[in-house]
């Protein structure tokens, strides 16, 4: 079963409507201030997690009155972010895939942390992606295929999550590579483009951050 996580960053309501498929059996996890976005669209999540230090009392009480919602409340002084807790819950629910909205925003520290914690889902072999109005972000550690007519935007950028990613081979891209070692601290992988109907990314060791972007 797919799980949709609504975190507390910036959320496009049209995007939320597009990805919300609760009637199809989707689990929805709201993370703290992510409840605000659901409230304005009258969407009821299955689970709510957080310390609730950034949400209005009106919205919180509205959802606390609904017995079908399971709340997981945490102290604000904790080791894990609310979004990380939500990903761990999604993994406990044995999700077939995870989509995260509201994981990016003004707080760059939170945005970067949310990209890094995608590694937990990758290790669990669960497809997991962060989506906003301009980007789709996910991690890969082996061969990955992209279809030009299905990518999120014109640009595909590759950044190393690990200190180095070895033997990267790109086919079907404007800027191909052959067994290239991409290391932290260089921007070589930014703003590539798919020029064939199908493009592939292959690598031997390491983890790549893949960002499909629109202008």
Structure description:
The chain is of the alpha/beta class and 215 residues long. The protein has two domains: 2-133, 3-Layer(aba) Sandwich (Rossmann fold); 139-213, Sandwich (Jelly Rolls). 22% of the residues lie in helices and 33% in strands. It has six helices and 14 strands. It has helices at 13-19, 34-40, 57-64, 82-92, 108-116, 118-123, and strands at residues 2-6, 27-31, 47-50, 70-73, 97-101, 128-131, 135-140, 144-147, 155-160, 164-171, 177-183, 192-193, 198-202, 208-213. The longest helix has 11 residues, at 82-92. It starts with a strand and ends with a strand.
Tally of structural domains: 2
Strand content: 25-35%
Outline the biggest β-sheet: 10 strands, mixed
Q: Helix proportion of residues, in percent?
A: 10-25%
CATH fold assignment of the largest domain: Rossmann fold
Mean pLDDT across all amino acids: 93
Count of DSSP-assigned helices: 6
CATH class of the largest domain: Alpha Beta
What is the name of the CATH superfamily of the largest domain?
A: Thiamin pyrophosphokinase, catalytic domain
Order of helices and strands: EHEHEHEHEHHEEEEEEEEE
From the N-terminal CA to the C-terminal CA, the straight-line distance is 32 Å
Per CATH, which architecture of the largest domain?
A: 3-Layer(aba) Sandwich
Low-confidence blocks of residues: none
Instruction: State the secondary-structure class.
Output: alpha/beta
User: Rg to the nearest angstrom?
Assistant: 18 Å
- Strands in their spatial order, largest beta sheet: 4-3-2-1-5-6-7-14-9-12
